Amino acid sequence: MTSDTSDGVTQSGSVYTITKAGEYTVAGLLSEGQLIVDAGDEDEVTIVLNGTSITCSSGSPIYVKNASEVKIKSEENSFNEVIDNRAEATEDSSDVAGNAAIYATCDLKLVGKGALVVTANYNNGIQSKDDLSFKNVIVKVTAVNNAVKGNDAVDIESGNIIAISAKGDGIKTSNSSISNKGNQKGIVTITGGNIDIYAACDGIDASYGADISGDGNLNIYTDTYSEYSEEVTSSGSSSGTSSGRDSSANKSASANTVSYVAASDTIANAPGGFGGGNMGGMDGQNGGNKAGGDRLGMPGDFNESGNSSGQSYSTKGIKAESEINISGFTINISSTDDGIHANSDSGVLETGEDGKGTIVINGGSITISSGDDGMHADKQLDVNDGYINVVTSYEGLEAITINLNGGKIYVYATDDGINACTGDGKTSPIVNVTGGYIDVTTTSGDTDGIDSNGNYVQTGGFVLVKGGSSSGNVSGSIDVDGTVTITGGTCVALGGVCETPINSANAYVLSSVSFSSGRYSLKDCLLYTSDAADDLTRV
């Protein structure tokens, strides 16, 4: 190991300890050793990985005990690997020797344009007890528990990231308190990059919120949709390998889609005792087993809307304890539980406050295949723009208040397509449509295309509902406990409306029509094209 601070490194056998601020370059093979950072409270340390392999079976291969901030930089065109070969942790295991393959007690930043492969057989893959961020770097993490965990925050700005969890969450935060500067902790922020998440439990599990914006691709596969999932039990212990999972279910991406830079057969010997050697490829790394107790959601967090997946643990695509905001990205989610879910549980936040339970979609392209709800907000769901396609679900969109103000929304559900449900007893349920294009399809039977336990109000937009029972007051294309008010936009309900619309404008109801799977065509109609509102031309 070389450094710009010659007296900043101590050695004891195969353990190298950085004790001062500075930049340190690591190259070569360190077998059964550790790289430890134990610097001052105000020290900033940069570790440059330039073709190295670090393996340890007694503690975290890279362990940051103390510093102000540590940056791990993968040198451009280099291949690096970190392997935690400890036996799988149990509920009685201690984190004194580090709780992850790369473990930091301070802010941790991963940067650079090289490749880093992390294998964690003990517990988590990459973990910071404070903030954890990624920029530019190519990273593949295979962990028995959480692949990526920042207790206070996880920020992904750019790069190519593959996060694989055999028995835990893909990306996770755990602290929802307020910082000394008044900033909210517990947020997963994604503003760029290409990210693939394979998780036995939740893809993203945020202790407060998830903010996704900018350009990039995010693919999430949970539980049975991930070929890497192993058996998880509600008590936090595992029963070994996977049992009866369909590893090929509805996956359209591979975990090896990132192109890695091949490592040179010869790695430069580094001063300080890191010997040269041959670097192994990422495909030779194996995941492990984990019985950690922090992977599971709280009881009652699973399938609140009624469709049971048979699991006693949460397997959602994106989950937050308070709020989720999406304004960009191309997002594809295949989840056994809800695709996107925001909680509002009482006193769940570390501030003692309730979660907001809100989801706001301002843009992006979102495709969801879910065994339960496509999107579920405990309180309010707002769609202002973007593209949403719920390919399959039990209930498509669900919240107490649903505001559909823009964008294009396609929903297929085996129960209710859009459901304004009862919840906190304080807010009257409502489906409120002011704009956008909404296309809802449900299966036949006791289903509703749009179901509001309060009112349905439409002042704009175009709504097309295909399906729902035509059984009058029981269910239908639009079923409400209150009133149906349509004063603007266009609403086409094929299957029946339980209440006669009030002040209806452009409301079309076909109560005797039912639909099954297949293709339909529209005939004998008049189509018009217009370049201006007052200049219509028949075509």
Quick synopsis:
The chain is mainly β and 539 residues long. The protein is 0% helix and 45% strand.
Write the layout of secondary structure elements.
Layout: E1 2-3, E2 9-12, E3 15-18, E4 22-31, E5 34-38, E6 44-56, E7 62-66, E8 69-74, E9 79-84, E10 100-104, E11 107-112, E12 115-120, E13 124-128, E14 131-134, E15 138-143, E16 148-150, E17 153-156, E18 160-165, E19 171-172, E20 187-199, E21 204-206, E22 209-222, E23 318-320, E24 323-335, E25 340-342, E26 358-370, E27 375-377, E28 380-383, E29 387-392, E30 397-399, E31 401-404, E32 408-413, E33 418-420, E34 430-433, E35 437-442, E36 450-452, E37 455-466, E38 478-480, E39 484-494, E40 507-510, E41 528-532, E42 535-538
Parallel strand pairs: 3-5, 4-6, 5-7, 6-8, 6-9, 7-10, 8-11, 9-12, 10-13, 11-14, 12-15, 13-16, 14-17, 15-18, 16-19, 17-20, 18-20, 19-21, 20-22, 21-23, 22-24, 23-25, 24-26, 25-27, 26-28, 26-29, 27-30, 28-31, 29-32, 30-33, 31-34, 32-35, 33-36, 34-37, 35-37, 36-38, 37-39, 39-40
Antiparallel strand pairs: 1-4, 2-3, 41-42
Describe this structure in words.
This protein is 0% helix and 45% strand. The model is unreliable at 233-305, 470-475 and 526-539 (pLDDT under 50). A hairpin with a 2-residue loop joins strand 2 (9-12) and strand 3 (15-18). The strands form 3 sheets. It has a 24-stranded mixed beta sheet that branches. It has a 16-stranded mixed beta sheet with strand order 2-3-5-7-10-13-16-19-21-23-25-27-30-33-36-38, with no helix packed on it. It is built from no helices and 42 strands. With 539 residues, it is mainly beta. It starts with a strand and ends with a strand.
